């Protein structure tokens, strides 16, 4: 069917700028150039590109975009043709295909209308709804099939909770272990001080060596704590930096996903509207004037799909890195913790093996306990002498009566009866 200008209204470009051009595309091994065609006779005066498939000759050339009008194929002028006829012509041509097109320059901000914003919001609301609930509420939506990232997000939340618990228990363990190390250090200083004050050589050696062993054990404990802190630092980096950064990337991915699904839903509604008018053989004004509004939404969907694909790849890479870190790095950190604990225990056993000094015989009469008793006796004698001198000074006036000063000492003032 040939195109006749009298059969259609004048094309309404909606203020969009249009430029002409041509591109040569070499067919792939499947004998296709990778485009989907829409419009054409008998309802639309324009044949336009609906979709460009990934990794196809048309996608690699980057000259053609969704919404561009096809006006010629090699030497054929296809203005006003049916899309099936154009597809058959492209299949018949072997080797390179030259496509003449009118490119539509679309302002993407104009395509993001209030209707798209509402659809975006609706997709956010029904994201966590079941299909039965959404159908019962009469909410139409576009669904992205086989979206494994939703499950990945749930797994990441579980891993984050697991890491938080592991970090909490490790910190609690290190605090308790720090108290043990401090106790060993204090006990070692006390034992060393007792050894320094001890008179007997055997006891002095035993207490001093026992104190040194406890001090060495405390040093091993502090070294173990220092190495274990590296594990906590790594866990905090994973929980406080890696996971939030991935969540932010996922949030951007969800924004791109909802916008892309909103354009898909808008195109589906416009296709349904066109199909309903075609079923009753009634003309649709936007279709008869070149369907430029629909082509603008096609271009916006293509751009949203590209952004969505890029964000999806970023999320997949980051989730893969997190999985590798969870499987490999976390196991290595736990292994280091176990090795540090084993090294500490081995060091403590090695130090204690050389301290077989007990039971220890101590002469109480010559040890620090007897010194402390003699020291107490000396203090008591000193206080008693001071009190006796005070008594003698009070008895000074009686010497004149007695006539001779008596020789008093501490022994004469004690009642031994």
Largest sheet: 4 strands, antiparallel
Total of DSSP H or I helical runs spanning 4+ residues: 11
Structural class: alpha+beta
- Which second-level CATH architecture of the largest domain applies? Up-down Bundle
Instruction: Look at the structure and give the CATH class of the largest domain.
Output: Mainly Alpha
Helix coverage percent of residues? 55-70%
Q: Gyration radius, to the nearest Å?
A: 47 Å
Strand order, largest beta sheet: 1-6-4-5
CATH superfamily of the largest domain: Arfaptin homology (AH) domain/BAR domain
Order of helices and strands: EEEHEEHEHHHHHHHHH
First-residue to last-residue Cα separation: 148 Å
Might you state the CATH topology name of the largest domain? Substrate Binding Domain Of Dnak, Chain:A, Domain 2
Q: Can you count the beta strands?
A: 6
- Average pLDDT works out at 80
Q: Percent of residues in beta strands?
A: 5-15%
Short description:
By secondary structure, the chain is of the alpha+beta class. Helices cover 63% and strands 9% of the residues.
Characterise the protein shown here.
Helix content is 63%, strand content 9%. The protein is an alpha+beta fold and 417 residues long. It folds into 2 domains: 17-105, Pdz3 Domain; 148-357, Arfaptin homology (AH) domain/BAR domain (Substrate Binding Domain Of Dnak, Chain:A, Domain 2). It has a 4-stranded antiparallel sheet with strand order 1-6-4-5. The protein has a two-stranded antiparallel ribbon with strand order 2-3. The radius of gyration is 47 Å and the shape is rod-shaped.
